[in-house]
Write a structure and sequence with these properties.
Length: 907
């Protein structure tokens, strides 16, 4: 499967082309081995026809259709799998090339890579930021990626491990000193992984359990992030020393934390319960201790310093004496000749205590702080007794990991729908009218109980519904989890679809009912989630009312005076389109920060960003740079979802690069000018633009009576709803219609047909109105001077470039003739947006300033085209058969997976 087109590659990118060629050849060999030469010949014939069709040879279009649509379903499935596997391998080659390019930058001692910590500290020095101010900012900085289990990418862990093996072998082949035999052995291992992957079902037949989703997330936490934390801090210290010599390494910098929603996200998922919360916390503790134990044992073997040959601190000797008294049997397991090696002895006990901690057995550490203190004793003794170059490096690395991951690995957030809590509270209070009462009345009653530190009187347990009993058990699980796994094990309690202060107060009241309160304070940080455009607009009113309640103000005082508000990018976009959603988020954050100042509360944001541009994805650095002044404040908590987790954290060097990028821009946002220079008239233009965009979006999506029927016929939403890749249903609150469809399957469906409606529609009409009212020069001025508008335009441009209306028009054939005019509206809006963005940027074509991305899209398209043709044919046949043919459905599911791999976008 080699490239036949003449495509210009820069010299620096030629290795990428070579890797893709090698992987294509290996895949061809696998196809022949597994299914015979006829399959490879057929795949090659389809591939060449698809390329020629794309290279302005339309006569090959009919030939391509005929080749594909006359195949039996079993053969279609093999063709789909072949192209999907090739696209997966291309994705891996691109990751390896990112590693290659990063290594090239790291070899340059003068010019740091853009966005790196070296570049950030150099910029801070040039801006005159003092070392003292920088160290204070570093001490307060908090970066926390939160991994979620949203069903947009569910690659099995077994396949993730094979992909990682391929990447490692490709990186190994970069070594110019390899012998020919070693290079061939690396290729053989790659072929093994490709073959084993081919023989593994990519998409499970059964919907994964919460435990399955956790297993996937644990791969990233234990195999990737656990490993990159020390190199991250080492890079930070080196970058600081390079720009602020002779700056000492900042002490107490502990800015990285990791979170997860897997096992705690109950919103619309009946499979997540109090039981899964505790099971998840236990699994995470076992996983992180399994990571610690090999390192402790290795260090114990390495640190062979012996009394008489090296000196040791009195504190370490005292600790060892305590252990001799408490755990004599453990130390007796050491050979006699090793007992005069204090470090080895102490680490032997540490390994025993870690194992006991994992099993809740006698001898367990009481807390991760006790475990960290043991490591600190070893590190301090080495540092004070000439051990800087005798093992201190490894001990410090393990201590960094212990500080970041504790015994919890990742903080588990809990999330639930506000509506469910309202219903449960009404039942527990035995108030049949609770749901009909005004929100202010509900809030006032709850606030009175909280002010008096009373548990609201609740109906007896025997009379409670299963839903009410389970809701209270969740808070009991939070209490038990923190007692057993430590306070950091459970993070925020997030209230989805928050509409009033009563929704936050309800959580505190339920916590009291369940016995979570510690004395007078409820030890829980409650974060309202503002998701729709209307909820974002009402955010300040909700916050003002909440902070005006003395009981809640007292609660915040016990929680350190910090209020977290989660802002949702997905539902706000589905509610009003990209421009309206982005502006609503921007305005809400500005207003909420100001409201926090009025009340003397530190307000920070948790960003519920999805994978795609239309769900808040896109360029994270641009997004932070364009955030309102004062809204970042050295605090970045953000969800990482679906396929983005693999893209950002699937390989250690890339994970390290992403952590550097977000850390650098978060630090810069608070200390220097990052380009926020909107003129006084620009917010008004943007407000008008957002209003026009929302009106056009809602006119089509929510007000056009035939739109839902068009959407369900045009896209493979009926297949996506049947994908066994997530543990929760596709619709929110069990409802029907576009409004209740979750944002992920909504965006996923449009991505499959190559029409990025959620990330474009409405923008063309809005830009046209703004151009007519203010002129193109005003828009160009906004683009040049305002990071927020700059990022919005660039993100819409990328969605336009990835969209293929020619492919979309093929899917229109699935729609009833009297509904097909809706596609013409979509196409007209896309054309308008394209023309105006090109005029605004004064560019001849989309992505003219991003040639690599434009080239990659062009190179991938011919490999995705056959998957679209097959998917359309399969959809037509499956629907004609009343959606009962499982063989057709299996082929359709594979086509969905392949297209997602090809365009690197799902939901």
């Amino acid at each position: 499967m080699n490239e036949i087109r003449q495509v210009e590659f820069a010299a620096k990118d030629q290795p990428l082309r070579d890797d893709v060629s090698i992987l294509g050849q290996l895949l061809g060999e696998v196809l022949v081995e597994q299914h015979g030469p006829e399959l490879l010949e057929q795949v090659e014939s389809v591939r060449l026809a698809a390329i020629r069709r794309r290279e302005d040879q339309p006569e090959h279009s009919e030939a391509l259709d005929e080749q594909l649509t006359r195949l039996p379903v079993s053969r279609m499935l093999l063709i789909i799998r072949a192209f999907s596997t090739y696209l997966r391998l291309v994705n891996l080659a691109e990751k390896v090339h990112r590693i290659r390019r990063r290594r090239a930058y790291l070899q340059d001692p003068v010019v740091p890579q853009r966005g790196s910590l070296r570049a950030a500290f150099a910029e801070l020095q040039d801006a005159g930021v003092s070392l003292e101010r920088l160290q204070a900012a570093l001490g307060a900085l908090r970066i926390q990626p939160v991994l979620t289990a949203h069903p947009t990418e569910a690659t099995r862990r077994s396949l993730l491990e094979k992909e990682y093996s391929i990447i490692l072998r490709l990186v190994e082949r970069m070594n110019p000193d390899l012998t020919p035999r070693e290079r061939e052995q690396a290729l053989a291992r790659i072929r093994d992984a490709v073959t084993a992957g081919w023989q593994t079902r990519a998409m499970p037949h059964k919907r994964p359990t919460v435990a399955d989703e956790l297993d996937s997330i644990l791969f990233y936490l234990t195999d990737i992030l656990f490993r990159v934390v020390p190199p991250f801090y080492e890079a930070l210290h080196e970058a600081l020393a390079a720009s602020y010599p002779p700056a000492a390494s900042p002490q107490g910098v502990n800015l990285l934390r990791f979170g997860s929603w897997v096992g705690g996200d109950m919103d619309g998922n009946p499979n997540v319960t109090a039981t899964t919360i505790l099971e998840t916390l236990a699994a995470q503790r076992r996983a992180v201790i399994r990571c610690y134990l090999p390192e402790v044992r290795r260090l114990g073997r390495y640190l062979s310093q012996t009394r008489g040959e090296a000196a040791f601190s009195a504190e370490l000797d005292q600790r060892l004496a305590e252990y001799l008294d408490r755990f004599p049997a453990v130390l007796e397991q050491l050979p006699e000749r090793h007992r005069d090696m204090p470090y080895r002895c102490l680490l032997q006990v540490a390994a025993f205590r870690l194992a006991a901690t994992a099993d809740d057995a006698e001898g367990a550490y009481r807390s991760p702080d006790d475990w960290s203190r043991d490591l600190a004793l070893v590190a301090d003794s080495l540092a004070d007794h000439r051990g800087e170059h005798a093992g201190l490096f490894g001990v410090r690395r393990l201590a960094m990991r212990a500080q970041a991951f504790g015994f919890h690995l990742a903080t588990l957030d809990i999330r639930q729908d506000a509506l469910l809590h309202r219903q449960v509270m009404g039942e527990l209070l035995n108030d049949e009218r609770w749901m009909q009462r005004p929100a202010k009345e509900r809030a006032a009653r709850l606030a009175r109980h909280l002010a008096a530190s009373e548990t609201p009187e609740a109906a007896g347990d025997a009379d409670r519904s299963k839903r009410a009993r389970e809701t209270l058990r969740v808070f009991e699980a939070i209490r038990a989890g923190r007692q057993r796994f430590g306070d950091p094990s459970v993070g925020l309690f997030i209230v989805s679809m928050t509409q009033g202060p009563d929704d936050v107060l309800t959580v505190l009241a339920l916590a009291r009912m369940a016995g979570l309160a510690n004395g007078e304070a409820v030890p829980l940080d409650v974060a309202p989630l503002l998701e729709t455009i209307d909820d974002l607009a009402a955010g300040v009113e909700i916050l003002d009312a909440l902070l005006a309640e003395p009981a809640y103000a007292e609660h915040l005082r016990h929680r350190g005076g910090r209020q977290v508000i989660m802002v949702g990018y997905s539902d706000s976009n589905k509610d009003g389109g990209i421009a309206a959603a982005r502006w609503a988020l921007h305005e809400a954050q500005s207003a909420l920060v100001e409201a926090g100042r009025r009340h003397g509360v530190e307000l920070v944001f948790f960003h519920g960003r999805g994978g795609t541009v239309s769900r808040g994805g896109g360029n994270m650095v641009d997004g932070i740079a364009g955030a309102p002044p004062g809204s970042v404040g050295g605090y970045l908590r953000v969800t990482e979802q679906g396929e983005v987790i693999n893209q950002k954290y699937g390989v250690r060097p890339i994970a390290l690069r992403n952590l550097e990028l977000v850390t650098s821009i978060t630090l810069l946002h608070g200390l220097v000018d990052v380009g926020q220079h909107p003129g006084p008239h620009m917010p008004d233009i943007m407000r008008s633009l957002a209003h026009a965009a929302r009106a056009r979006f809602r006119q089509l999506v929510y007000e056009e009576p035939d739109f839902e029927a068009f959407f369900r016929a045009f896209t493979p939403i009926d297949v996506i709803e049947r994908l066994a890749i997530g543990s929760r249903p596709a619709a929110r609150r069990g409802g029907q219609g576009i409004g209740n469809l979750r944002a992920i399957p909504w965006v996923f469906s449009w991505a499959q047909v190559r029409v990025g409606l959620p990330g474009v529609f409405g923008m063309g009409s809005a830009l046209a109105q703004a151009r007519a009212e203010h002129g193109i020069e005003a828009l160009r001025d906004m683009y040049e001077r305002w990071n927020f508008f700059h990022g919005l335009v660039n993100d819409v441009e990328m969605v336009l470039a990835k969209s293929e209306l020619g492919i979309g028009r093929r899917y229109v054939e699935l729609v009833e003739p009297d509904l097909r005019g809706l596609f013409d509206q979509i196409a007209a809006e896309f054309g308008l947006a394209t023309d105006l963005i090109l005029e605004l940027k004064q560019s001849p074509r989309l992505l003219d300033d991003q040639p690599m991305l434009r080239r990659n899209i062009r190179l991938r398209n011919p490999y995705v085209d056959p998957l679209h043709i097959l998917q359309i044919n399969l959809l037509e046949r499956w629907r004609a058969g009343a959606r009962t043919d499982d063989a057709l459905l299996d082929a359709l599911k594979s086509s969905v997976n392949g297209i997602a791999l090809g365009i690197q976008n799902t939901g």
